[in-house]
Specification:
By secondary structure, the protein is α/β, with parallel strands linked by helices. The protein has 8 helices and 6 strands.
Amino acid sequence: MLEGQAVAAGLRDAGVTHVIWIPDSELGTWNEALSSTEGLALVRVCRAGEAFAIAAGLWIGGKKPVVMIQCTGLFEAGDALRNVLHDLKIPLFVVVGVRSWRAHQEGKTADNCPVFTEPILNAWQIPTTLLPLDATAEDLIAEYRRHLDDGGPHAVLLPE
């Protein structure tokens, strides 16, 4: 699991101004770090679709938001994601926690979230990177920096 303090500091140092999120599963362990890092605003939302709308408004206003949600929230947010990333062409960076990924790889769960997450992002034509299990905060920040260089939307999948 990535260490929250390193993730928060790395995002701030890379220029991220806001993290829009629902603190599900492993992402939720970063709450203290994200909420206490000076220069980084944490915005908690009720539904993942709302995260994309808020992030879009912040981006239009000149901020640099990142959306952090779990795979189930990604499924719920489909129309908002489509509208923001494709219709409005807002190049958001999205971190998606893939619930039960490890257990699915070992054949120890019936949870189908790991089965559908990447294909859904592919269907929406969102470039996606699956971080390895031993990924560090630096790996996540490197993906964010590549996203800035590419200039389009990007999703990073965190196996949980």
